[in-house]
Amino acid sequence: MNIKSNPLRQPLLALLLAVALGQGAALAQVPAAPIPLQAQPARQSASAALAPMLGATKAGQRIVAVGDYGIALLSDDDGKHFRQAGKMPVSSTLTAVSFADDKNGWAVGHWGAIVHTTDGGENWAIQRLDTQEDRPLFSVHFFNAEEGVAVGLWSLVLRTHDGGKSWETVQIPAPPEGGKADRNLFKIFVSPKGSLFVAAERGAVLRSDDKGQTWHYLNTGYKGSLWTGLALADGSLIVAGLRGSLYRSGDDGKSWQAVDSGSKSSLTDLVQVDKRIVGVGLDGVEIESHDGGIGCRRQWPGAFFPARRGRADACQQALSFTVEPKNNQETNMKIFSMLIDGQPIAARTTFPVINPATGTAFALVPAGDASHVDAAVAAARRAFPAWSRTPDGERQRLLHALGAALEAHMPELMELVTLETGKPLGGLNGVGAGMEVGGSIAWTHVTADLELPVEILQDNAEARVEIHRKPLGVVGSITPWNWPLMIAIWHVIPALRAGNTVVIKPSELSPVATARFVELANAILPPGVLNLVTGAAGSEVGPAMASHPGIDKIVFTGSTATGRRIMAAGAGNLKRLTLELGGNDAGIVLPDVDVKAIAPKLFGVTFHNNGQTCACLKRLYVHESIYEELCGELARIALTTVVGDGLQAETQLGPIQNAMQLAKVEELAADARAQGGRFLCGGQRRAGAGYFYEPTIVADLTDGSRLVDEEPFGPILPVIKYSDVDEVIARANQSLNGLGGSVWSADLVRAAELAQRLECGTAWVNEHGAVQPDAPFGGVKQSGIGVEFGRHGLAEYTSIQTLKIMKS
Ligand code: NAP
Question: pLDDT confidence of 342, banded at 50, 70, 90?
Fold first, then answer.
């Protein structure tokens, strides 16, 4: 690498850095309200069949399927092989497709997109696109080459008489139970007589007998979402949807009977194949009726709909019937892909990502397995020779471009971070999603500018001895759920900067901001340089990476227990390791402080992100002379702290990120009570949805109780009294962990001397947990191995080669 200075060049960068460091400027970055997602960047995929396909139909003998990334696939051999359409002008998800004949077809999707083909799906042109609002269309039907109807979010009904040159919006009546006509309309199906039906949200079916001009409601009696429907030859109607619900009407929709579908998984589409009715749904579920589906109700017992699980393969491969879970606007489901060798990759199944503020799923992510790890590692190995030889300046340019792409997508990334972690957009002292994304941008730029110059040890008449830094090869990055995007950046950017290629696996609890980051990066980096594999809870993805012979180094941030497993698994090929593990950081407050002045700061460094930060203050030792006063101040601040949904502008603390962590905090609180802890505030979870827990201060505990000795990783702080400073340093050092520690005092010299006696990777005076991209950060003892950030962190992604050139 070249020798170059490393300035924080632009004012913007300095501002972002301030955000990253949690300084007040962060608030200026944070918008007041949730921000809608931006349209996705254009992407043409060579192996597009791996992207989820959401709708399919026949155009003459041809099968045409559409799906994620605006991909359209065509098969002329009854589905044996598919190729990608030639021209598709949209890049957002397409949900459905309809052909009037073998040439004229229309596909609809997100951003209200309607695209049209006149050559059987080879080339498409935009007829409608809403650039202001992502109001997706979910279904489309054309009666002939002129007349068609499309439906979508919030009762959106569009109609055309001229082959889609113009579309009129049709108003549908208010629902029978009153209120606005704002149901989501999911699927159009048509009876043999030409009546139009729409399966809709809240158990409704809509009907139109005049090609979509006027509509009325049919009431199934069901209250959940109906995602699909089918009209049979005898006029019978079947609708199906949420959690395996299935209803049938034999009297033209006047009355409906519930049918046991045999499935508890949601059903997303139904199709008639000869005399069979086949249904498909979430979890790869497939159901079927053996009697052709024609007949009275008694011919439809549950036995005729045996749910056949474990058929995901068949379900995914039968493309004309495959229905990946649709973007269900009832839960605002977002769908993500893995990324391997520059291509979006779906797995056989997906897993849901939970918004901790509501406890419900908001996104679906592919459940990858060891075969995806193999594919990703192979891609990264292929990409390594060219990337490692790419000139330094070019790698820097690409990484700065990546930083700029993150910045351009800051609102979108912030929303994803808030949805998946619960942390507020703004947050306590500006520590929230704004800081996470702002910090990621700053770290990217600063790390891109880092240099590891050639060192010259000797240069005389006899010989010249140089020390070179060389990339290691393929780096595997495994990240935790608490700061998913920021930690991904901390791993990926220095690895790439040094010339390595990367396979990253985010936590299954918060994978989506990372997925989007990798997608943005892949629009900039060569294929295979950065790959993403996602795995469901307890999947083989993490262990497969840890033991993979094709991975040269693992950089892991997470719990100490997992770190030990990764270290053992990596022994096979002597993997290089950077392990950033758990901490149980102590803060020591000396008697000379101004209690009122430091209390808000102490509260901030403990409770930001709900205490779910590795280097948060987690044990607070306070001198007996100021103990009660400081305890009271901290409790007062806790009681005025606003806890709520992170998407709300006023929220300072969001929910705990996941149910397991909430249970752990509750368990530690119960133990603290049993040990005689005095709860000054909080001490309980909030009733209602989401994983909310009141910020909690517990006095009168001492070392030996679980809340003091274990890392709580939640919004609960034990405040411990001490009288002797030497003794308290020894108590702080008793922990097996050694990530960070702090001393708080008006006497900076004495405080610095005491701080250096703490056994930890970073010691702060009158601060805690603040990190910066040019200063090394890491743990000692069982808090980890190695450091991140700055030149020292960058060096960990390299090996040393000594070059000795004899001159005589
Ligand atoms: P975790 O349970 O150890 O999980 C971290 C990652 O490891 C996840 O992606 C997880 O995947 C994966 N994983 C689990 N078992 C694995 C195995 N056998 N082989 C390979 N990978 C495996 O940690 P967490 O609960 O997400 O994070 C909280 C912990 O991280 C806390 O202890 C915190 O202190 C620590 N942390 C440390 C730092 C630091 O810089 N020192 C920073 C942040 C957090 P799945 O989720 O898919 O199981």
Answer: very high
